[in-house]
Amino acid sequence: MRMLVLSVLATLLAWFAAPPPHALAQQAAVKREMVVDRKAVIATVEPVHELAARARIPGTVTNLIVKEGDQVTDGQRIATVVDQKLLYQMQALAGRIQAQQAERDQALIDYQRALELRRSGVSSQSQLDQARTRLDVAERTLQALRSDRQVIEQQAAEGAVLAPGAGRVLKLPVQEGSVVLAGDTIATMATKNYILRLQLPERHARFIRAGDTILVGERGLSAVQDLEELRRGKVVLVYPEIDQGRVIADVQVEGLGDYFVGERTRVYIATGTRPALVIPGGYLYRRYGVDYVRLADGTEVVVQPGLPVEDGIEILAGLKPGDVVAKP
User: Fold this and answer.
1) What's the half-sphere exposure (Cβ side, CA atoms, 13 Å) at 327?
2) Among 192, 223, 227, 194, which Cα is nearest to 213's?
3) 137-147 confidence digits (pLDDT tens)
4) Lowest mean pLDDT segment, chosen from 47-51, 90-94, 227-231
């Protein structure tokens, strides 16, 4: 009986001393593993294409409709360029057309009279042919003048400066009353699609490839310690030319429409792999400005965390391989 009681007590003590299953599940061993070495660099928001709305005729800007920052659609009127010489040419041509119409009407009357006289036998065939020729010349001259008027009207219509595509107006180098020549820029616009442009040191050229994934931080160049808070971007183009010791790459990221053109943000790019001590992110806690981890035996250890990695957080100091940490 005594032996039975002792056995039951030993079983109960072992049961109470053993950690619960969930406690065992919240422990992790510190190990050294290969992680992606990421460097923080600065990227600039740039438009995929920058468009220029240009004047097609020389003249004076009389109506500037948009201002910097406005959103425009494809084909929207931005400004109007007026050339006063075209107005004077139109007035002069209108007078010539009226005079030619009168000449054509007189030639038509002469031809009809010559035709009647020919039918009655009073006039000769040569006089009828001369009247027909004068009528044809008057008709062709009137048609040519009308064509000249259409050319001038088209030139005047080309004074409307239209947006070459949809986007946001960046610059307006002219104002109302400015005198411009054909081909001068009236407005510079950025298309709606934005990209991040990287300028990396030449030593990173061998690491970056089209299709690589980069991590994009929040606006304001703030440092982020959690990979889940970072957005993912994809390298779509690596330029084949190194400019002043820097390789240039374009990164496509969703949700850049509300950024300013030229705004800078922090991104993290992969520059190879290296060994590091890694623990899961939930095992690190902070108290009074100091980072701690709790070992399996309950001891608190001060650690120096590094950059976040795919499997957790890198530990620079305070732990060694083989340590077992517990979730606080």
Assistant:
1) 10
2) 227
3) 999 999 999 89
4) 227-231
Q: How many Å apart are CA 30 and CA 44, to the nearest integer?
A: 38
Burial classification of residue 233, based on how many CB atoms lie within 10 Å of its CB (0-12 exposed, 13-18 middle, 19 or more buried)? buried
Of 264, 197, 191, the C-alpha closest to 236 is: 197
- Tell me how far CA of residue 61 lies from CA of 3, 45, 90, 159, in angstroms: 109, 32, 20, 9
Which residues touch 93 (CB under 8 Å, ≥6 apart)? Answer: 145, 148, 149, 152
Q: Identify residue 228 by its one-letter amino acid code.
A: E
At residue 159, the pLDDT reads: 87
Classify 172 as helix, strand or coil: coil
pLDDT at 123: 76
Domain-wise residue ranges, the chain: 24-47+193-326, 55-82+159-190, 84-156
Q: Using CB atoms within 10 A of its CB, is residue 327 exposed (0-12), middle (13-18) or buried (19+)?
A: middle
pLDDT digits (tens, 9 = 90+) for 217-264: 777 655 555 555 678 888 888 888 888 888 888 888 887 767 788 888
Chain CA centroid to CA 121, Å: 82
Q: Which fold has domain 55-82+159-190?
A: OB fold (Dihydrolipoamide Acetyltransferase, E2P) (2.40.50)
The fourth-level CATH superfamily of domain 24-47+193-326 is Efflux pump adaptor protein, beta barrel domain (2.40.30.170)
Of residues 173 and 6, more confidently modeled: 173
